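seq:
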Amino acid sequence: MTRPLEPFPSVLRATIALQQGDAELASQLVSETFPGGPKTPPGDSDFVQFNRMQYLAATPALESGDLVTAWEWITAYDEWLAWSGAVLGRADGQILWARYYREARNSDEAFRHAQRARDWASEPRQPLALLAAERLLGELAIEAGRYDAAAQHLNTSLRLAGACAAPYERALTLLTLAELRLARGNHTEVATLIDEVRAICTPLDAGAALARVATLGARLDALRDSAPLYPAGLSPREVEVLRLVAAGLTNRDLAERLFLSEHTVRSHVRNILTKTQTENRTAAALFAHEHNLS
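struct:
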């Protein structure tokens, strides 16, 4: 059941509403705060609260693909920030622009702004903004097929979420990590991550994240239904590695062929040996031949 939001200030109510998936309430609160819309000039007001509300106003516009409205609110956010002379908040503004350009299918600009967000969040250090920037860099790396880089960004984001004791932020990063595992064909790990996110978000009534969980779960089910079943619980990526191991390729050869780091290749080989209950590469190659995987 959704918790009542009336006792909280508008900016906090809007934040909770977005996390619960109630974009309509969030938009209503934004309209009450800014009757004049994004053209409202800065003035005698609680700058921090109003600037944060501008950030929240841009979020549903980005999520719905309304780039015109998103541009207006992000521009307003920047103008208020420049008027104030504040440094804190610049990282969040760069995150908004990165999300804007990502939605506009301009990956280079999205990546550039995400990197700037990480830089602004590093000095002075703002852990929550930093973990959000690292998560966004991970998302962009997944979309670009740079899975090793994505894993590094997401692991950093998870460490920051733990240091900040921020379970909701941890859940969002775990969702992105599940996307990475899905892209790599590690379906068992995806299911485990989904369960952890659900356990975090259900008590929080975090409807937006739970909707993503449902979508990701449906994608996982569809892939399970259509994907070939491999022996010993091997993933498609592990079968790909095993076939090359059986062909006599070294870890360096594998890394070059699959555009992976040697560390990742060693991890795959180790997982293959464990799952197939084989002691070395020769025995794993024999397993591949016996199961028509070579």
